Amino acid sequence: MIIDVHRHMWSVQERYPSDFADLTGQELSPPPRLDWRRTTREMIDEMDGAGVDVAVLIVADFASRLGEPPFSIEEENRFIAEARDLYPERIIAFYGIDPRRPGAADGFQKAIKELKVSGLKLHPAAGYFPHDRACYPLYELCDAHGLTVLFHSGPAGFHPKLDGRFSHPLEFDQVATDFPHLGIIMGHAGGEWWEDCVSIARKHPNMFLELAEWQVDLRDRPERALPAIDAMLKTLGRERIVWGSDLPGLRAVMSLREYVELFRDLPILGKGHGLAFDDSDVDAMLGGNAARILRL
Ligand SMILES: [Zn+2]
After folding, report:
1. From residue 150, how far is each of 9, 95, 130, 134, 264 by CA, in Å?
2. What is the pTM of this model?
3. The architecture CATH gives domain 3-293
4. What does pLDDT average to in each consecutive run of 10 residues of the chain (296 residues)?
């Protein structure tokens, strides 16, 4: 079973096209109308083609830094729940909100009840620390309902207005201490700060490292990525690492299918660098662990 624990309906480029036109100095053609039904069908086709069984669909709330996206945050959260209702065996919906929005916890509580969301996605690089007390009512709701939190962790280099100091792995230590039973998935495994992420996760058995975005380094800098993944496995154990794609934003880098194939090749790639990964490591990371954490 393959579970992609980090999947978006639309990339940040699709949600904020004019920002990227400014950054690249390019004239963008008017953004395509975002149609969640069509996007969902295309996503399922893409998953079928890659052998991905389940995707956790998440909403990232960047509004405080990037402005409101084309749809309100309530609408986007509803779209992913409706996508899940169309494909209940294939999609898991995680609610996304900036905890500083007025009524954030009430909105989340309502979504747990009415939209049946299975978890929470927070993106602290939008300008708040994960240990900000504004987040705590949301964690309490997760705790009370047995839901998992997926955080962006690490630098947020994909947009200059986002600030990675808020999502440094060290900032999550307090949260894991205060909520020892909360399932915490560290998106991107802290990225370039992965060693700090491992140090923190070592203290907290409820913390899991997730490998979305690692397709870039696995392809372009395997001499860095492979020893990093090896160190995560050796330090934390294979049951603490999960796999994700961060598509569609990274589709231009590598297709979903190519990332699955690259990851399946880990034992062969490792051998070339003097590292021993086996197929059971790969199976655990690709889906076995996520199935357990998400109680599938
Ligand atoms: Zn993402």
Report:
1. 16, 10, 11, 17, 24
2. 0.95
3. Alpha-Beta Barrel (3.20)
4. 96 83 59 81 98 97 90 94 98 98 98 98 98 98 98 90 95 98 98 98 98 97 98 98 96 96 98 97 98 96
CA–CA separation, 75 and 50 (whole Å): 29
Please give all residues whose CB falls under 5 A of ion ligand 1, grouped by chain where several chains appear. Answer: 246
Order of strands across the sheet that contains 184-187? 3-8, 54-58, 91-96, 119-122, 148-152, 184-187, 207-210, 241-242
Interval between CA 80 and ligand 1 midpoint (Å): 14
| Rounded Cα gap, residues 92 and 256, in angstroms | 18
Distance of CA 244 from the midpoint of ligand 1 (Å): 9
Separation of CA 162 and ligand 1 centre (Å):
13
